[in-house]
Amino acid sequence: MRSTSDTVAAIGLAIGGALGMAGTFVASDALRETLWTIDGVGIVVATALLTMKYQRLGNDLVAAGFLTFLAGESLLLAGNAAGLQASVPSYTGGIALWAAGLVMVSAQATFALWMRLTGLIAAVLFAVSVLMILWGAPLLPTSSPLPALGYPFLVLTFIGWIWTLLKAER
Predict the structure, then answer these.
(1) Cα separation of 106 and 48, whole Å?
(2) C-alpha to C-alpha distance for 143 and 132, rounded to whole angstroms
(3) Residue pLDDT, tens place only, 11-46
(4) d(CA 157, CA 144)
(5) What percent of the chain has pLDDT over 70?
(6) Could you please report the per-residue DSSP string of 104-151?
(7) How far apart are CA 46 and CA 112, in angstroms?
(8) What is the mean pLDDT of residues 72-87?
């Protein structure tokens, strides 16, 4: 029997991935901010539960990675309602923490190799975006190719984590 926590975490990741990607493509500021707020809450809930799960399993690095990702998502949530331009400082800190968290989660063989690779690719793309912003590039959360190129890799990683959670106790 699958635990309720695993199911809730999987739902949070699914909501986060779907609404996060959808928010990137909508033209309405209010709709984007709404989608990203719901997305952010789902991801915070999911990563909090994943932190607890992997801490209980004794996998401290993965647990700390999920906790670091949670901190990054919290920064994104904090700046979300300010609009795209005003959110850049919290966005930059948030994706920097995303990158660190993804590296920590992907560093050990806890998840399948393809999930670890998509997580590492997303981490590199977000880290490059952070450096570009810090060095003066006028990037917004919706800018393409960066940071937007990192989102599909992040969502693929989420899909892998969801798959791992749902297959765990079949």
Answers:
(1) 17
(2) 12
(3) 999 999 999 999 999 999 999 999 999 999 999 999
(4) 20
(5) 98
(6) HHHSSTTS-HHHHHHHHHHHHHHHHHHHHHHTT----TT-TTTTTTHH
(7) 19
(8) 94
Structural contact between residues 64 and 57, judged by C-beta atoms closer than 8 angstroms:
no
Residue 26 and residue 24: Cα distance in Å, rounded? 6
Name 51's Cβ contacts closer than 8 Å, sequence gap at least 6. 63, 64, 66, 67, 70
To 10 degrees, what angle do helices 60-80 and 88-106 make?
160
Cβ contacts of 110 within 8 Å, gap of 6 or more: 54, 59, 62
Q: Cβ atoms within 10 A of the Cβ of 126, count?
A: 28
Alpha-carbon torsion, ordered 52, 33, 75, 71, to 10 deg = 10
Q: Scanning the structure block, which residue is given the tokens 């190129």? A: 149
What's the pLDDT at 92?
A: 98
Instruction: Spell out the residues 6+ positions from residue 53 whose beta carbon is closer than 8 angstroms to its own.
Output: 5, 6, 9, 63
In this structure, of 1-10, 120-129, 143-152, the range with the lowest mean pLDDT score is 1-10
User: Could you tell me the two tokens for 162?
Assistant: 């969801």
Pairwise CA distance, residues 81 & 108, whole Å = 35
> For 124, how many CA atoms within 13 A lie in the half-sphere containing its CB?
7
